[in-house]
Amino acid sequence: MILDAQPDIEVVGQAADGRRAVELARRLRPDVCLFDIRMPGLDGIEATRRLAGPDVADPLAVVVITTFDLDEYVYAALRAGARGFLLKNAGSELLSQAVHAAARGDALIAPSVTARLLGAFAHAGPASPSARPAEPLTAREEEILAAVARGRTNGEIADELHISLSTVKSHIASLMTKLDARNRVEIAMWAYETNRVRS
């Protein structure tokens, strides 16, 4: 109902359980899937893994929402490939922003969990599968890596480092290649897991 009320968002499918949600998503190929952590039949984390996980050839963008502000849920959802994580009390504006961010290939995580998210989960979660980048990072890439890990937008990074937006995008694309990361969340998680950045 909230999303349908947005003029630039169209809800193309709804499902009563996780299995049906995965089937519908595979058939409809929406720009973004919105899953609850707790769904009958198949929970939101497993549904996310099936549509956006590391082994999925053509992953879909997934945003996970929950009433449960628990560290293990956030960590598991992001590990499964989610591009966003929100609490149900986030409000319509933040929900809309998360859907738009996911559609653009960006990530949006509820502000209430962002502060502790990456640092805490990186130390509690499994070690990064790739502790060393494919190629060494340049000094500028290290700066951008740290900024991404702290949740800065491309525009904020450009302003902070006095470089153009296209240069930021180019460096982020390079980081994704070197780190074998599929999105900004994975870049940030790698930064914390390898102790490049501390919370």
From TrEMBL:
In the record, 4-aspartylphosphate modifications are located at 36
Domain (Response regulatory) ranges: 1-103
The GO terms this record gives for MF are:
DNA binding
Known InterPro entries for this protein? Answer: CheY-like_superfamily, NreC/VraR/RcsB-like_REC, Sig_transdc_resp-reg_C-effctor, Sig_transdc_resp-reg_receiver, Tscrpt_reg_LuxR_C, WalR-like
Is Metal-binding there in the keyword field? no
Q: Set out the biological process GO terms recorded for this chain's protein.
A: phosphorelay signal transduction system; regulation of DNA-templated transcription
The family database entries (Pfam families) matched by this protein are listed as: GerE, Response_reg
The UniProt transmembrane annotation reads: none
Q: Which UniProt keywords apply?
A: DNA-binding, Phosphoprotein, Transcription, Transcription regulation
| Matching SUPFAM superfamilies | C-terminal effector domain of the bipartite response regulators, CheY-like
Superkingdom of origin:
Bacteria
Q: Which SMART domains match?
A: HTH_LUXR, REC
Domain HTH luxR-type: from-to ranges: 130-195
PANTHER family, sorted: TRANSCRIPTIONAL REGULATORY PROTEIN NARL-RELATED, TWO-COMPONENT RESPONSE REGULATOR
User: What is the protein name for this chain?
Assistant: DNA-binding response regulator
What is the protein's species of origin? Bailinhaonella thermotolerans
